[in-house]
Amino acid sequence: MKKIVFTLLLIVAFASSYGQSKWHKQQNQIFVDAAAKEYGLDDSQKEKLYDVRLDMVTAYMDSNKAMKAGDITKEEMRAKNKEASETFHTELAKITGKPYKEMKPWLDEMREKMNKK
């Protein structure tokens, strides 16, 4: 009986993890498509942006999990998230050729749109 419960629990955990990962990838693609339209990105730029943004999202998820597990403090989580965000913004500026200050209004708008989905 314990093996059955454990197996079911494992299946649910795997399905939940897979579903969340799929959702993040879909959200990432929405962001990349919008950025390509806004900034006229070519396919190689879109691919690079997809990878860079997915790295940021993964860093956020990892730091949140570590904080919830008690491995890091809330302040350490914030520092890791800030570092991931700054890295993303630097790479985004390189990819688009636009400074962060110029892109900030669009980024704020995208953040709001994506939070509603």
How is this structure best summarized?
This protein is mainly alpha-helical and 117 residues long. 89% of the residues lie in helices and 0% in strands. Helix 1 crosses helix 2 and helix 2 (43-68) runs antiparallel to helix 3 (74-96).
Describe this structure in words.
This protein has 117 residues and is mainly α. It has one domain (21-116). It has helices at 2-39, 43-68, 74-96, 100-116. It is globular, with a radius of gyration of 17 Å. The N and C termini lie far apart (40 Å). Keywords: Signal. Residues 1-19 form the signal peptide. This is DUF4890 domain-containing protein.
Overall number of structural domains: 1
| Strand runs, count | 0
Which descriptor suits the 3D outline?
globular
Structural class by SSE content: mainly alpha
Tell me the series of helices and strands, N- to C-terminal.
HHHH
- Poorly predicted regions are 12-19
Descriptive labels:
117 residues; single chain; mainly alpha; globular
List the helices and strands and how they pair.
Blueprint: H1 2-39, H2 43-68, H3 74-96, H4 100-116
Helix pairs in contact: 1-2, 2-3
